[in-house]
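User: Structure please.
Assistant: Input sequence and predicted structure:
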Amino acid sequence: MLIQARTCRDFSLKGKETIPLPGMGSKVIAVVLVAIVVAAGWGYWVLAPKMPSQVATYTTQQTSLLTSSELAQLTSTSSAILTSQASQWIDVGAAQPVGYYLGLLESTGAEPYVSLARELRELPDSSNATAVAQIVYLALNATISSRPSGPEVKEALELIIRGGTPNQSDFSYAVPSYNTELEVLYWLASSTQFKRDDTLALAIAMSNGFWVTIGDDQVRNAVKNDTSSLLAFLRETDALQESMGYFRLEDLPLEAKIALAWTGGDTGTHGPHAITGSQTTHDCKRVKLDLTGYRWDNVNVETLRQMRDHMEQKAWITKSIDQTVANVEEYFFFSGMNQHYKYVSSWDVKVQVNGETVSARNMNNANFNFRYYLEHGYAIGVCEDEMTLASGFLKSWGIATLPQLSYWKEGDWYNGHTYTMYFDAASKSWKCYPSQIGIVLHDVRDAYIFLPPVMQSTYMPWSEEIPRAAAVPYPYQSGEVNTAMFSPMLNITGSYLNAFIKGVDSTQIKAWLLYGEKPATITTTYTTWTQQGAWNVLSDGSLDLIGEDGKIAGDLGQPYVDLANVSYSFYNRSLFFRFSLRGEIPNRITTTHVTSIWYQVLLDVDSDSRTGFRWSNNFTPDYILQFYVDFDASSKTAKAGSLLLKYSGNGTDFSWTPTGYTPPIIAGGVGQDFFVLTCEYQGISVSKGSTVQFFARSGILYDGKVYNDPVPDEGIISIVL
């Protein structure tokens, strides 16, 4: 019987299990923070609002007072810091002068508090005693506990002091001589009630001070308003997450909150209004960024709110962050390619964006592309534009993202791919969607993670920045690398990037993003992976393919379609399948005949002829485990991915629906002549001791016709877990 593999690969994501959101946007009930009057000697933050607070606009300078005993405690020792037993986090009573609160910082005699007081004094306007008091209390009342956000308050302040002031030598125009990140924090404190251990407010300040540094007066005013709106929006999203029992953005580590607060995508070197880069005349080393450029580069809160509502309507949001990411990525760039996303390969294709004519690729404008998608039913651009759009959707639900870029050599030039890196709260690690990594699992030379501009004194790049130069493309200039805007992973291999499928630990990424450590110590089992259980080999003695027109001798000249052998193993509640091929899976093809290839394991997990597809009387598969490679119609480059499909037909029709689980390719892949595919027992609804029947095969779409190579030739293998 002919297996139409193409059919089972083209399913939309309809029918996935999701948990609908109980109301978004206008459905959210806002409540006002209630001030807590604290008795003398006790002043602990005890109010944790279940829903987001209204943004409090202070018309008078109100804040809490320290008791005389607490002030005496502060001034009696150079290292005294308020503890949770002697702290206040309220906004009642008459304000003290600004100098009073700065004196509290200075009286500690400790860093970063003394420097914080000095830099607050240097701000062009720090006359709002309420704002200053909030910053002081945020610094001195940080929780000392095992809670992640507690200790990170001090760390964030140290980073702000170290990196928040720009370096005048980087610019040909005058930039602020004071700490612009601290100024944004001051603006937030002037308009918003801080929470205890408010690392979210700190992260927003750290990510957005740079726009004040490089922007004109209009940009400055926009940042002041936008950061307050962003904080309110993210708190609102956090309250929704809490109400649903989902992972909360307030519990993210510091580097993830900074990434979440960075709304500028990959605007460092790409886009018509990039900070620097060959596509723009607005090089912000020489010319201040205007409001048009700022609005272009940043996804705004209005767009984020609409994106969040759209995520709810499409049922993309699930408790699993991995699955939420998969829903977005598949809808646009993989299953939905050419339906919900139109790939624009030519720079000559133009589009009007807010009255400006630009190439319809590498735009880096999430606001425009989201509107375009709503109007036309599909978004446009290249991988970078999809990254910007997908990142906006994920940020709208509080999922932290940053751009990751990979480059490989093609002759004397470099080609590249940009995709989204995201934080998975379940594993406390940073990941990339496996199918995105699959695109670059070949001759990768360099890979980069975009850095939010926290450390401004060393941030502005040279013109030879490799990601800009490579993506143009531009000759590789060895030895002329300034990666101020990127954390580089130089001279790597595709299997190195596989670590981002399983996840790279949060502490490792923090070291790269915030402390400039080189990511050369990343460890992964993928390059040296060995299965602990015994391999069982299935032989394949034939090159023949079964096509729509009957049996064909040979592999159509594509040896990677023929299976040298397939091995299987089971260990620690997982099944493993190793496909050995007679040729390497190409990362690019020159022929026009081949559209896609696939490798499948058909699994009958219940030995029940009443369920699954009726392949034969003794074999009715319920699931298909699949690795596939599509070749882009214009560039002929590989786009790889993996799926676990569940049978959804009536027994005789070959109908399959994705389960939502993305099986990892833990070794090999594009550019290699083998790969290892795995799935957990629970993913295919079996338990230890169950009998699972399966067979493996490969297939190819050649000149629009399907050809399959079943293995083993003689039929079905049955194993007992």
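Confidence is low (pLDDT under 50) at residues 1-94, 145-149, 463-482, 520-529.
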